[in-house]
Amino acid sequence: TRHQMVFATPEEAAKDVKHVARAFGANRVGITDFDRRWLYKHKFSDMSKQSKAQELPEGLTSVIVVAQAMDYELVKTVPSALSGAATGLGYSHDAMVVLSLAQYIRNLGYEAVASMNDTALAIPLAIKAGLGEYGRNGLLITPDYRPRVRLGKVFTNLPLAHDQPLSFGVKAFCDQCQKCSQNCPVGAIPKDAPTKLQHNQSNIKGVKKWTVNGEKCFSYWAAQNSDCSICIRVCPYNKDYRKWWNRLGIKLAATSLRSFMLWLDNKLKFGKRQQPKKWWPL
User: Fold this and answer.
1) Which of 36, 151, 248, 257 has its CA 20 to 30 A from that of 58?
2) Does an H or E element contain 265, and which?
């Protein structure tokens, strides 16, 4: 049996894990319970072209979810080969964080399984872990980096205090805003109210939400030979918050003046594509 580091309380353990995650480079980190509703039942091998039952250690109790911000200036060039670096770097940084954090927890004597887009759905777990809210574009909207994040997670049996979901007005804002659905080249993002609609086998059943047609979306990615992320670029939440007028706008988005904020967003042409050569003037 392993010797296990014992913390005074689950709260102390959570504080320690979050501190280490941030030291490894996580931009945001939250913790929730191990909820089997969001686990994939099977995993698929691209080598053998076969699937088998998902395998995880027994006794897992928590999921640590980390978010890595995508570069704002790179996202402005979407769609482009250059903008694909924003996605790739986000996932690369996530991978380094979750692999390092999982090893740290194993060194404490506990089970820890690092995961990216495999094993379980990241967005429901991130919402439960208090990292943000769900948007019309099917993405997590965080309070600071907004839709511009990539997610990773670590499953563990280390006793940890769990965070609570956030609410800062995303649902009410997305009810009025349709910029992502209006700008999606293949119409993969719904324009209507949330439903339990299931487009195809790539969608889960039984959850009332805005459901993106993932197969339409990914087919467009493949046809472009690059990432898309137009729905991130045009999202009114996607701003440079170092500028005071953007901070003011986001405050309006959480109030009854959200329609005015949307009008300004359109009038000032926020979300307009930037030519890649402006980022990389060679």
Assistant:
1) 151
2) helix 258-267
pTM of the model: 0.93
CB neighbourhood size of 93 (10 A)? 20
The structure tokens listed for 37 are: 């509703």
pLDDT band for position 1 (cuts 50, 70, 90): low
Cβ burial of 99 (10 Å; 0-12, 13-18, 19+) is middle
Say if CB 212 and CB 219 are below 8 A apart.
no
pLDDT tens track for 213-255: 999 999 998 888 888 999 999 999 999 999 999 899 989 999 9
CB 181 within 8 A of CB 190: yes
CA dist 147 → 15, 97, 170, 236 (Å): 25, 20, 11, 10
